[in-house]
Model the fold of this input.
Amino acid sequence: MEWLKNSWRQKKAEQQPDWPEPAFLQRVCGELEALPPLVFAGEIRTLKSYLAQAQEGNAFLLQGGDCAEEFKNCTAPTIRETLKVILQMAVVLSFSGEKPVIKIGRIAGQYAKPRSSSIEKKSAIELPSYRGDIVNGADFTPEARLPDPNRLKEAYWRSASTLNLLRAFTKGGFADLHRVHAWNQDFIQKSTEGHRYEELAKAIEKALAFLKVIGIQDDHPEIHEVDFYTSHEALLLNYEEALTRKDTITGNWYDCSAHMLWIGDRTRQLDGAHIEFLRGVRNPIGMKIGPKHDLDEIKRIIERLNPNNEGGRITLITRFGADQVDRHLPPLAREITRSGFKVLWSCDPMHGNTYLSSSNYKSRKFTSIINEILRFFEVHRAEGTVPGGVHLELTGLDVTECTGGAQQIEDHHLENNYATNCDPRLNAQQALELAFLISDKLKG
Ligand code: PEP
Ligand code: CO
Done:
C-alpha cells in the first residue's frame, strides 16, 4: 500500500478521542497544516546521526520530562527548571560517565495521553477519560471532558512558545558550561547530590580555566551552546498528520511536530494506524516495549518502520518493571541481535514500576527504578548489546510523587506536593541522584 500522510486513516487507530464534530476537527487540522512546522528537517537528520552514534556505544541518550505537559504549566519557570535538571543530569553523565550525551525532552508537545479505559467512573457518574490537555480538560465535569478540537491549536501554540524559550536558553548563554554552578538549585545544594554536583561543577570550571591558560580559545560553540531536541508520543494522528511536511531539500516526509516521536506500548499494532503513519516519516522513532509484547510482532514492526535498516531510526524503549526485566530483556536483546537489526536500546524504568500507595496515590519506588536500570545495563553487557539510553519522567520542581531516594520520601509524604495529572515524576533531587548512579554504570 502506498504511504500518504493520511493513509493511516485506512487502518484502525487505537486511543483516539471521540471527537464530537468531525467536520470541526478537519477545519482545525486544515488551519494547522497552513502553519509553520515546529522543527526543521535538517535538525531531525542531525539527531538521527547522533542516535546512530549512540547505537555504537559512542554516545548516551538522555530523554526525559513530564508524563503529560499541562497548558497551565507552559510558563518560563517550569520550562527553565525542567531544562536545568536535564542539563545537570547531562553534565553528570558526560563528565563522570565519560560519554557525549544526547539530550531529548519529553517537552514542547507531550500533551496527549493513552488511557487504560475510555471512561472514568466516580460514584454513579461516568465521563470520558482525560486524554491530555490537547484533547480535553482534567476536571471531572462533562464540559471539561468533552474533546475540543480547538485544543489542538492551543497545543501547537504552546509547543511553539516552549520550543522558542528552549532554543533561547540553549543557544543564548543559559546553557553555557561556565554556568554549570548556576544550574544547581537552592533546594538541592544542601543535599549529598548537591554537594557531589558542586564538586563536579568545580572540576569543570578548573578544566575550562586550564584550557584557557594553555592557550586554547574558549570560543567553541560546544562550550557555550547545547543541542536540545524535543519528543512526544505520536498518539493523536490528526495532529501529527497536520504537522507532517515534505522537506524541500530532500523531498522526504518529516513529522515536524517534534524531532523524535515514539509509539506507546498500547498503540504499536503491526497493522494499526500508528505504525502506518510512522513508517512514512523520516524522524527517529522510539518504540515502547512492555512485558506483554510478542517478539515476532516486534520484529515485523521494526522491518516495516526501518526496511533499509538505517542507523539512528529505531530506539527500543524497554519498560518491563524491575521484577520482569530479567525475564523479558535477554530473549528480546538476543533475537534483535540475531536478526541483525540496528537499534538503540533505551530503558524506561518508570512505566513498569507504578504502584498504588497506601495513601492512594499512583507512585513509583526509587529503588525499583534503579533496579530496572541496573539490570538493563547488566543484561545488555552480558548479551553483548549496548545499553544506550534512558527514558524518564521527571520535573525540575520539588514534587513528592515518587517514593524513596536520599530524601526518603514515604507513602505518607506523597500528599505534600503531588502535582501530576498523570504519572508520578522524579523530582529534581531524585533525578540528579539517578544521574550519578547511571554515570557509575556508564563507565563500568
Ligand atoms: C508514557 O510514556 O507516558 C506512556 C504512556 O508509556 P507506555 O506507552 O510505555 O505505557
Ligand atoms: Co507516563
About this structure: The first strand starts at residue 60 and ends at 65. Residues 265 and 314 are 15 Å apart (CA to CA). The longest helix spans residues 150-171.
